[in-house]
Amino acid sequence: MDIYVGKQRITLTQNQFVAKGGEGSIFKRENIAYKIYEDHKKMIPPGKIQELEVLNDPFILNPKELIKDNNTNLIGFTTDWANDCTPMARLFTTSFRDANHITNDTTIVLIEFLKNKTHHIHSKNCLVVDYNELNLLAAPGFITAYFIDVNSWETPNYPATAIMDSIRDWTTSKFTPLTDWFSFAVISFQLFVGLHPFKGKHKDPSKEGLQKRVVEHISVFNKDIGFPPSTRSFDLIPSKYKDWFYSLFEKGERKLPPDLPGAIVVAQVITKLILSTDKLEITDIREYESNILYHNPNGEITKTMKTIWLNRTEYPIGPNVEFVSTPLEGYPILVKIEDGEVKFKGLSLQVESLNLACESMAIINNSLYLKYEGNLSEITFIVLNGVIRPVVKNVWPVSPLSSKIFTNCIYQSLLGKPYIVIPIPSFKQSSFITKQIPELEGFQVLDSKYENHVCMVVYHTGQVYNKLIIVFNEDFSKYTTRILEDVHTSVNFTVLENGVCIHIPEDGKMEVFFNNYKFGNTSIKMVEDSSIVLNMKLIADRNKVRFFTNNKLYGVTLKK
């Protein structure tokens, strides 16, 4: 595609394609983003771009230069590119926070940063309006964030063009600085506790519905609301913010946020061990010194926030360190991305350097995968003369910008067409499955996981998060799908060796179904038990199930 920015002609290709949304497509070239509208009538007016120029802040990615086609029609605009960022919605989930060492102190710094930027925006006579978690990108370190989709904001002479229902103040039809602060409060509350302030279940079914709850001031502070056990403690909210949230959500008052975060009162975390219920048998396996991030029953490998345990041997680690071992001998190796390169540290033998550039990595069945630009490399390890040597075993092409590594799979968009890429590691000959998934076209994917012919994808529809459950047949030539609507943003399931999939879609419920190699048994058993919570991170132990919450590891058996 040839475009014109000023008098410069620029060619955009698939290698520069990032994503496709409701309005158009995003491309990236060097450190510049190019937004191309499919419907030129939806193009932001040049006058609005001029009014947005007052937002001269590096964290506000407002439109820069106009883009024209070869017929001099306005078709888009450029903006700055934010590298290595994370959609704010991911910071709502406890599992992501733990995996990335995001503390409550980090959250307070981030919220204060957002508050200061919002004051700056209002001081320039602009409104965010669509102040939602997908229009905020957390920068590395998670204490700052970029504001994107600025073209939809309200300026003195141009109205806002979008707003998501979940952050809307339904008590008024006008957009003001106070409606922005209401949306800010909804985001901030979820950053603290992981729950939308107007979610949860009311004792009276007639009181359900987001709009009704907002209008009638029925929030999670209401005594008749029950909220999921996976919700983080309200005591993590600083006292001044807690008072502000209560007055805003429960009393319906509209006022500015507090100037200071206030004192923090952290409640002691107590894990309740449920030995037996009508539906489950739960056994206590082991307790660790800090929260568990990962557990592999094969070899009893456990990664916590501070250490990696190999059976009963403890190895202290720093942040963002992963574990892999040599395929034949089982020698342990720590892996980390540092300064744009992959680094290794052997725990029993020295590991040679690889000098390979790397953006992100994944470990699938003890195989290491590294992504850099348009390549996905599989790394294996051999032992020669008492030294471990990393070797590039395979290299596969992936989309440089629109591909993202999730758990055991990669999601990528090829000019708007969504694909799931599944590496299948093998000691001898690895394979690489690529499947187009039309059901995801036009949506933003937030999280995904693949395991043993089952893939689950959480995506955003424009208003809510849905989950697509994909079950592949034996040779991946076909698949079936099922959609769960308005779901939590995390993916939590595991598949046993016998093909049984255990899935927790929400607190209090557990699904059991087969991975349907031959599309045979498609029945779904639903187990309802109050002891089931989303924070029970499920793991397959051959044909048994384990899970961990906080720093404790459990075994669980479903009663017949």
Number of strands: 40
CATH architecture of the largest domain: Orthogonal Bundle
Helix proportion range: 10-25%
Number of helices: 6
Distance between the termini: 59 Å
**Main β-sheet, in a few words?**
7 strands, antiparallel
CATH homology superfamily name of the largest domain = Transferase(Phosphotransferase) domain 1
Residue windows where pLDDT falls under 50 for at least 5 positions: 261-273
In summary, what is this structure?
The chain is mainly β and 560 residues long.
Q: Can you offer a commentary on this structure?
A:
It contains six helices and 40 strands. The strands form ten sheets. The protein has a seven-stranded antiparallel beta sheet, with no helix packed on it. A five-stranded mixed beta sheet has the order 21-25-24-23-22, with no helix packed on it. A four-stranded antiparallel beta sheet has the order 13-40-39-38, with no helix packed on it. Strand 35 (500-506) and strand 36 (509-514) form a beta hairpin. Helix 3 runs antiparallel to helix 4. The longest helix is centred in the N-terminal third of the chain and has 20 residues, at 104-123. The radius of gyration is 24 Å and the shape is globular.
